[in-house]
Amino acid sequence: MIARTAKELEKIGAAFAKKLSGGDIVALQGELGAGKTTFVRGVANALGIRKRIPSPTFTIMNVYKLPRAATKKFHAQRLVHADTYRLEKPEEIFTLGLDEYLTDGESIVIIEWAERVSRHLSGHNQLAGHKVKKIAIKITKNGRRINI
Ligand SMILES: Nc1ncnc2c1ncn2[C@@H]1O[C@H](COP(=O)(O)OP(=O)(O)O)[C@@H](O)[C@H]1O
Ligand SMILES: [Mg+2]
């Protein structure tokens, strides 16, 4: 799929979000400025989150409570938006409290720069059975190419 504008990429994120439910883990791959955070804005919007969605580059992890109607619809309590770009060591994902969210079955977790921690994600025992949905975004001359 190609998104010619950031708005189009948000719409693709929103459409993708319809299939999400608690326990899902989404790994976003793509260079700086590819549109990972933009994609998450679309997902958050579809989940009923009306807050501003800043990049978690410095906070590493932002947690958003889903509104009541959405908790029923998506069988999830929260959206967890992580960005591992600034982690010094991949294993730090387990000290952030992120591992709890990955396995509690009531969180939808989206991770930017997931390739930096993918070995740790797939090597994490408790994650067995939680399929990670991988999405790659590439900058092309026509816009962004998204592989879902
Ligand atoms: N087709 C497009 N899709 C997404 N973002 C785009 C597009 N064209 C330009 N942009 C711009 O690229 C930037 C993407 O930033 P961001 O979503 O923060 O990327 P990342 O999180 O991957 O670093 C934004 O400034 C956005 O406005
Ligand atoms: Mg980002």
Give a written overview of the molecule.
This protein is of the alpha/beta class and 148 residues long. The protein has one domain (2-147): Rossmann fold. It has helices at residues 6-17, 36-46, 68-74, 98-103, 118-122, and strands at 2-3, 25-29, 61-65, 78-83, 107-112, 132-140, 143-147. The protein has a seven-stranded mixed sheet with strand order 1-7-6-2-5-4-3. The relative contact order is 0.25. The model has no long low-confidence stretch (mean pLDDT 92). Adenosine-5'-diphosphate (ADP) is lined by residues 3-6, 9, 30, 32-38, 55, 112, 143-144.
Descriptive labels:
148 residues; alpha/beta; Rossmann fold; seven-stranded mixed β-sheet; 28% helix; 26% strand; binds adenosine-5'-diphosphate; binds magnesium ion
Note the topology.
Blueprint: E1 2-3, H1 6-17, E2 25-29, H2 36-46, E3 61-65, H3 68-74, E4 78-83, H4 98-103, E5 107-112, H5 118-122, E6 132-140, E7 143-147
Parallel strand pairs: 2-5, 2-6, 4-5
Antiparallel strand pairs: 1-7, 3-4, 6-7
The chain binds adenosine-5'-diphosphate (ADP) and magnesium ion.
Q: Provide the CATH topology.
A: Rossmann fold
Please, how many helices? Answer: 5
What share of the residues lie within helices?
Answer: 25-40%
Query: Which runs of at least 5 residues are low in confidence (pLDDT < 50)?
Result: none
Q: Numbering strands along the chain, what is their spatial order in the largest sheet?
A: 1-7-6-2-5-4-3
SSE order, one letter for each helix or strand: EHEHEHEHEHEE
* CATH H-level homologous superfamily name: P-loop containing nucleotide triphosphate hydrolases
- Can you summarize the main beta sheet? 7 strands, mixed
Bound molecules: adenosine-5'-diphosphate, magnesium ion
CATH architecture: 3-Layer(aba) Sandwich
For this structure, what is the CATH class?
Alpha Beta
Mean pLDDT: 92
- Shape by Cα distribution: globular
Beta fraction: 25-35%
